[in-house]
Amino acid sequence: MNTDLHVLWVYLSASPLAGLTLTLVAYQAGLWVFERLGRRPVFNPVLIAVLLLAVTLSLTGVEYKTYFDGAQFVHFLLGPATVALAVPLYNQFSEVRQSAPALVVALLVGSAASALSAVALAWAFGASKATLLSLAPKSVTSPIAMGVSEQIGGLPSLTAVLVILTGIIAATFGTWVLNLVRVKDWRARGFGMGVAAHGIGTARALQVNEVAGAFAGLGMGLNGLATAMLLPALYHLFF
């Protein structure tokens, strides 16, 4: 059995399939732990998969670029997966239309708070200008965040890391925070998760409730649009 696994690993490690296989196995392992331990947010499958991949790449000496060449297919599927979020949104369209005025206010306040609170906290701890600019778009999905970061003088690679950390932290502790501040409406809970934690927060909202998932997808999309339009404009206006 061990010989078979060794032969399989030698074959996979020499081809782009290694990255794809590692990604799928790591996520399935994370999902197994998540399901077995009562679907608790602290055992977020994305967080577990990231940790498993980091340990595996470190132990095997595989460079990240080599791994990512094989994982491109999963990266490509992010686009169709994002578009598929329109399905639950369509199913909840009447709820969205009734809540439109409140959503506009929540979007503007939530988007500004997500960016300013993180930048202000990092500034208080003495972060560099490049770090502050990289941190500002951390609540929107990676492709948009990296593009915005590049436009305003941040470091796109650092922004990508901060985006993933933001999503994992919000998906892990978001439910606890929302319960603490007594936000019980599924529309508000979902929209808040989407605005604060992009796709990872939206995935968590979909696991909990369909209405929350629909509003999280809407929040993610609108926050991405608002950040891409407003953040570069505000930066060039004041700096």
Automatic annotation (TrEMBL):
The chain crosses the membrane at residues 6-30, 42-61, 73-90, 102-125, 158-178, 214-238. GO terms for cellular component: membrane. The keyword Chaperone does not apply. Its main location: membrane. Keywords: Membrane, Transmembrane, Transmembrane helix. InterPro entries: CidB/LrgB. The keyword Transport does not apply. It is found in: Membrane. It comes from the Bacteria. PANTHER family: PLASTIDAL GLYCOLATE_GLYCERATE TRANSLOCATOR 1, CHLOROPLASTIC (PTHR30249:SF0), PUTATIVE SEROTONIN TRANSPORTER (PTHR30249). This is LrgB family protein.
